[in-house]
Amino acid sequence: MTDTTTTPSALFVCVHNAGRSQMAAGFLRALSGGAVEVRSAGSAPKDTINPVAVEAMAERGIDIHAEQPKVLTTEAVQASDVVITMGCGDACPIFPGKRYEDWQLDDPAGQGIDAVRPIRDEIERRVRDLLASLDVEPVALPTR
Fold first, then answer.
1. For the chain, N or C: smaller number of CB within 10 Å?
2. Count of domains for the chain
3. CATH code, domain carrying 121
4. Distance of CA 79 to the CA centre of its chain
5. Active-site residue numbers?
6. What integer is the mean pLDDT of 28-56?
Protein backbone atom coordinates (compact mmCIF):
# COMPACT_ATOMS: atom_id res chain seq x y z
CA MET A 1 0.00 0.00 0.00
CA THR A 2 1.36 3.41 -0.94
CA ASP A 3 1.58 6.06 1.73
CA THR A 4 0.06 9.07 0.00
CA THR A 5 1.35 11.43 2.73
CA THR A 6 4.92 10.92 1.47
CA THR A 7 4.40 9.70 -2.09
CA PRO A 8 2.80 12.18 -4.47
CA SER A 9 0.13 10.80 -6.79
CA ALA A 10 -1.10 11.88 -10.19
CA LEU A 11 -4.14 10.97 -12.26
CA PHE A 12 -4.19 11.50 -16.03
CA VAL A 13 -7.68 11.73 -17.55
CA CYS A 14 -8.73 11.84 -21.19
CA VAL A 15 -11.96 10.80 -22.85
CA HIS A 16 -10.96 7.32 -24.05
CA ASN A 17 -7.94 6.55 -21.80
CA ALA A 18 -6.40 4.98 -24.87
CA GLY A 19 -3.77 7.50 -26.04
CA ARG A 20 -2.73 10.73 -24.33
CA SER A 21 -3.42 9.71 -20.73
CA GLN A 22 -1.81 6.30 -21.24
CA MET A 23 1.33 7.88 -22.73
CA ALA A 24 1.50 10.38 -19.86
CA ALA A 25 1.09 7.63 -17.28
CA GLY A 26 3.78 5.58 -19.02
CA PHE A 27 6.21 8.49 -18.97
CA LEU A 28 5.46 9.32 -15.33
CA ARG A 29 5.93 5.70 -14.22
CA ALA A 30 9.22 5.42 -16.10
CA LEU A 31 10.64 8.85 -15.26
CA SER A 32 9.63 8.85 -11.58
CA GLY A 33 11.22 5.48 -10.92
CA GLY A 34 8.35 4.66 -8.57
CA ALA A 35 8.56 7.93 -6.64
CA VAL A 36 5.08 8.96 -7.83
CA GLU A 37 1.90 6.91 -7.66
CA VAL A 38 0.41 6.95 -11.18
CA ARG A 39 -3.19 6.51 -12.32
CA SER A 40 -4.97 7.04 -15.61
CA ALA A 41 -8.63 6.87 -16.58
CA GLY A 42 -11.17 7.98 -19.14
CA SER A 43 -14.62 9.50 -19.02
CA ALA A 44 -15.69 7.12 -21.84
CA PRO A 45 -12.89 4.52 -22.06
CA LYS A 46 -12.24 2.49 -25.20
CA ASP A 47 -11.79 -1.28 -25.12
CA THR A 48 -8.07 -1.18 -25.97
CA ILE A 49 -5.14 1.20 -26.08
CA ASN A 50 -4.35 2.98 -29.33
CA PRO A 51 -1.72 0.78 -31.05
CA VAL A 52 0.02 3.83 -32.52
CA ALA A 53 0.44 5.27 -28.99
CA VAL A 54 1.95 1.92 -27.95
CA GLU A 55 4.33 2.08 -30.93
CA ALA A 56 5.31 5.70 -30.21
CA MET A 57 6.07 4.90 -26.57
CA ALA A 58 8.07 1.80 -27.54
CA GLU A 59 10.30 4.12 -29.60
CA ARG A 60 11.16 5.85 -26.29
CA GLY A 61 11.80 2.53 -24.53
CA ILE A 62 8.50 2.47 -22.60
CA ASP A 63 6.17 -0.51 -22.95
CA ILE A 64 2.49 0.34 -22.39
CA HIS A 65 0.99 -2.46 -24.52
CA ALA A 66 -0.39 -4.37 -21.50
CA GLU A 67 -2.25 -1.36 -20.07
CA GLN A 68 -6.05 -1.31 -20.28
CA PRO A 69 -8.33 1.73 -20.51
CA LYS A 70 -10.09 2.32 -17.20
CA VAL A 71 -13.25 4.23 -16.33
CA LEU A 72 -12.82 7.46 -14.38
CA THR A 73 -14.05 7.08 -10.79
CA THR A 74 -14.59 9.58 -8.03
CA GLU A 75 -12.29 7.43 -5.86
CA ALA A 76 -9.40 7.79 -8.31
CA VAL A 77 -9.75 11.57 -8.23
CA GLN A 78 -10.01 11.64 -4.43
CA ALA A 79 -6.89 9.46 -4.09
CA SER A 80 -4.76 11.71 -6.33
CA ASP A 81 -2.81 14.84 -5.42
CA VAL A 82 -2.62 16.12 -9.00
CA VAL A 83 -5.37 15.58 -11.58
CA ILE A 84 -4.39 16.29 -15.17
CA THR A 85 -7.17 16.41 -17.74
CA MET A 86 -6.61 16.13 -21.48
CA GLY A 87 -9.78 17.09 -23.23
CA CYS A 88 -12.42 15.54 -20.95
CA GLY A 89 -13.48 18.92 -19.56
CA ASP A 90 -16.34 18.86 -17.08
CA ALA A 91 -16.47 15.04 -16.89
CA CYS A 92 -13.80 15.12 -14.19
CA PRO A 93 -15.14 15.64 -10.66
CA ILE A 94 -13.65 18.55 -8.73
CA PHE A 95 -12.60 18.21 -5.11
CA PRO A 96 -11.22 20.96 -2.86
CA GLY A 97 -7.53 20.73 -2.09
CA LYS A 98 -6.60 18.94 -5.31
CA ARG A 99 -4.27 20.43 -7.87
CA TYR A 100 -5.84 20.44 -11.35
CA GLU A 101 -4.13 21.01 -14.68
CA ASP A 102 -5.63 20.86 -18.15
CA TRP A 103 -3.16 19.88 -20.86
CA GLN A 104 -4.43 20.93 -24.29
CA LEU A 105 -3.03 18.23 -26.55
CA ASP A 106 -4.06 16.89 -29.94
CA ASP A 107 -5.87 13.56 -29.80
CA PRO A 108 -3.76 10.79 -31.36
CA ALA A 109 -6.86 8.71 -32.20
CA GLY A 110 -6.87 7.80 -35.88
CA GLN A 111 -3.47 9.41 -36.46
CA GLY A 112 -0.36 7.79 -37.93
CA ILE A 113 2.96 7.50 -36.14
CA ASP A 114 4.35 10.71 -37.70
CA ALA A 115 1.45 12.70 -36.19
CA VAL A 116 1.64 10.93 -32.81
CA ARG A 117 5.38 11.46 -32.22
CA PRO A 118 5.07 15.25 -31.60
CA ILE A 119 2.14 14.61 -29.22
CA ARG A 120 4.24 12.01 -27.38
CA ASP A 121 7.20 14.39 -27.17
CA GLU A 122 5.03 17.21 -25.79
CA ILE A 123 3.59 14.83 -23.19
CA GLU A 124 7.12 13.85 -22.14
CA ARG A 125 8.09 17.51 -21.76
CA ARG A 126 5.04 18.22 -19.61
CA VAL A 127 5.60 15.11 -17.47
CA ARG A 128 9.17 16.26 -16.85
CA ASP A 129 7.79 19.68 -15.77
CA LEU A 130 5.30 17.90 -13.50
CA LEU A 131 8.13 15.93 -11.88
CA ALA A 132 10.05 19.15 -11.27
CA SER A 133 6.96 20.69 -9.63
CA LEU A 134 6.73 17.63 -7.35
CA ASP A 135 10.46 17.87 -6.48
CA VAL A 136 11.09 14.44 -8.03
CA GLU A 137 14.31 13.98 -9.98
CA PRO A 138 13.63 12.08 -13.22
CA VAL A 139 15.47 8.83 -13.84
CA ALA A 140 16.92 7.88 -17.22
CA LEU A 141 14.55 6.28 -19.67
CA PRO A 142 15.34 2.72 -20.74
CA THR A 143 17.60 2.46 -23.75
CA ARG A 144 15.89 1.59 -26.99
1. N
2. 1
3. 3.40.50.2300
4. 15
5. 14, 88, 92
6. 96
